[in-house]
Design a protein that fits this description.
Shape: elongated
Strand content: 35-45%
Oligomer: single chain
Strand order of the largest sheet: 8-9-10-11-12-15-16-17-18-19-20-23
Radius of gyration: 47 Å
Order of helices and strands: HHHHHEHEHEEEEEEEEEEEEEEEEEEEEE
């Protein structure tokens, strides 16, 4: 019977294998038809045989903590001590608890005496009565029965060299507390006691000692990287508490690109060491001697007693001042030059004085500068003319707001010193001192993403264009050239201003400074934005000579200039007068400059 059953099972398995092979061959033969059928089902959305693309996961801190808390539970891991689980547990702990420095301060300043439990609390006490001998300090104070008891005590006291024959008589009873058992757990009655119980005395001392050992271990083990930067912007990393005793060479530079070598290291815990390079020596100037008729008042000092110690008073320096002056001179001479040309000489001066205020306790800072640019050019045919004239001031007052943002108030003022002409017409001036004068006042926010960039946004701004000399008798200034109506001397514009200042060094010995000012009038043509952009590129040749490229672009919708055709003839409007329109004004100066800084 068993043989027949085994034979039937073998036959069934053989038939199943043959049918599987046949069906597989049928599927191969019908593959194109089946593929078309499956594609139709996929397009209809009945089946999905394509891979699902991974989507980006977006979590906040609370959601991330809750998600990882589920996965660090022991039931989800093959090994509870898996290193990956250990670091996830530590990560969740760090994210849900206070930083280590706060915990360290809390532990080191914790009132440990408040959680100590006295040793006697660990015993069970019961009273016990005992008898003692009454030893009186003075015979003169004894009275009645006390004197008899004292005499009896003296008679029973052994003499010198004799042994005690019988005990002293007990004449007084007393009660003392005796420890009869030890408690396994003890708690404190104080409501601020954080533990449920102690198992042995001085347990708080043990907890305190263990916590101190771990704090000292972490302070010695953990390292922190500190990056030191200078004027050049290069970062030098220094590791604190690395115990490597490694010294790094650092070039300490000033604004004149002079440098001295120092070595930076980590000689001890939380300590940065600065050491001067070997061979670098500082010397004081030699004292001048042999000065005729020089008198020096000499005061005799008594060296038998100590001199009085005078308190050294230090004063915080809030203001910093510095000045930069650039003087450029160029000259060209021609004599009997067949190709044409004329001799010329030009000169220009660019002086800027800075005054910066920084009061960190008051969260106040201020940047101020006044600038004067003036240049003259003389040619053989036209004589001496002015080709550069600018007097401007810029003041900014900041108060710390939040992050890298400051509350800011900005004041800008621009004018010129001498008369300016629209050459070749040198009889009618188009500008002079305070004609025009432009002032912009703005209140808003100042954003400093880094030490090289400042973005000042002032939604509450006011721009004033002033021309004071508008008299009818010549020479006077035509105020309409600057957008001021004929019957007025000033143009008032409320609006919004944006000032961007950027200073960077693309390569060594080259500096590029950009200042961009944008202004729009809320009331009149707000879509027309006034632009004032100046760029200064300076390349140092040596400590007193630079190659300087200065470009200045101005566009003001209210400033109109006459329109001419290709033949340089005036273009007339419908009213018969020459047309005027607002166009971009551009000035560029390239030359060698002598630099003076003080």
């Amino acid at each position: 019977m068993m043989g027949i059953r085994a034979l039937l099972i073998s036959g069934i398995i053989l038939l199943s294998s043959l049918s599987a092979v046949i069906s597989a061959q049928d599927r191969i033969a019908q593959a194109p038809a089946d593929k078309a059928f499956i594609d139709s089902l996929s397009k209809a959305g009945i089946i999905r045989d394509t891979l699902i693309r991974r989507t980006d996961v977006s979590l906040n801190r609370e959601e991330a903590v809750r998600y990882l808390q589920k996965w660090i539970q022991p039931y989800a891991w093959k090994n509870w001590h898996d290193p990956f689980r250990s670091v996830l547990v530590q990560l969740v702990f760090e994210a849900t608890h206070q930083p280590f420095d706060s915990a360290e301060y809390y532990i080191r300043n914790y009132p440990w005496d408040s959680i100590s439990v006295p040793r006697e609390k660990f015993f069970i006490w019961e009273p016990a009565k005992i008898k003692i001998i009454d030893r009186s300090p003075s015979r003169d104070t004894l009275r009645g029965e006390e004197q008899a008891a004292a005499a009896l005590s003296d008679s029973l006291r052994p003499k010198q060299g004799e042994a005690l024959k019988q005990p002293f008589p007990a004449v007084k009873d007393t009660t003392i507390m005796v420890a009869i058992d030890t408690l396994k757990e003890v708690t404190s009655s104080s409501g601020s006691f954080p533990f449920r119980f102690y198992r042995y005395p001085f347990q708080s001392d043990s907890i305190r000692a263990a916590a101190k050992v771990l704090l000292d271990y972490l302070a010695a083990r953990d390292s922190m990287i500190v990056k030191i930067t200078g004027i050049s912007g290069k970062e030098t990393p220094i590791w604190l508490n690395s115990r490597s005793d490694m010294m790094i060479r650092y070039w300490l530079k000033n604004d004149l690109d002079d440098s001295v070598t120092v070595w930076v290291g980590n000689p001890a815990k939380n300590t940065i060491g600065l050491y001067l390079e070997n061979g670098v020596v500082f010397r004081r100037p030699a004292m001048q001697g042999n000065i005729s008729r020089a008198k020096i008042d000499v005061e005799t000092q008594n060296r038998n007693k100590l001199l009085d110690i005078h308190k050294i008073i230090t004063k915080t320096q809030y203001w910093r001042f510095h000045t930069e002056s650039a003087f450029a001179l160029s000259q060209g001479y021609l004599s009997n030059w067949v190709k044409g040309g004329e001799s010329s000489i030009s000169t220009s001066v660019d002086m800027t004085a800075y005054a910066d205020y920084d009061n960190k306790p008051m969260l106040l800072s201020s940047n101020n500068y006044i600038r004067l640019k003036y240049g003259l050019i003389a040619t053989t045919s036209d004589g001496l003319r002015k080709n550069l004239d600018l007097l401007e001031t810029n003041s900014k007052l900041n108060h710390k707001a939040f992050g890298k943002f400051d509350f800011s108030a900005v004041l800008l003022f621009k004018t010129q010193l001498s008369k300016g002409y629209n050459y070749p017409n040198d009889s009618v001036p188009v500008s002079k001192f305070m004609n025009p004068a432009m002032m912009t006042l703005g209140i808003g926010l100042d954003y400093k993403p880094n030490k090289h960039t400042s973005i000042n946004f002032s939604p509450l701004s006011y721009k004033l264009t002033l021309v004071t000399d508008t008299g009818r008798t010549a020479p006077h200034i035509d105020q309409t050239l600057y957008g001021i109506p004929k019957n007025r001397r000033a143009l008032h514009e409320p609006g919004l201003s944006l000032i961007v200042a950027h200073d960077f060094t693309p390569i060594k010995n080259m500096n590029i400074t950009n200042r961009l000012q944008l202004f729009t009038n809320y009331i009149h043509n707000p879509q027309n934005i006034d632009v004032d952009w100046e760029m200064i590129l300076t390349a140092n040749i040596n400590w007193f000579t630079d190659v300087r490229l200065n470009t200045h672009l101005i566009y003001d919708d209210d400033t109109k200039t006459p329109v001419f055709n290709r033949n340089k003839e005036p273009v007339l409007g419908p009213d018969g007068l020459q047309k005027k329109t607002a166009r971009a004004q551009f000035k560029e100066i390239l030359g060698f400059s002598f630099i003076f800084r003080f």
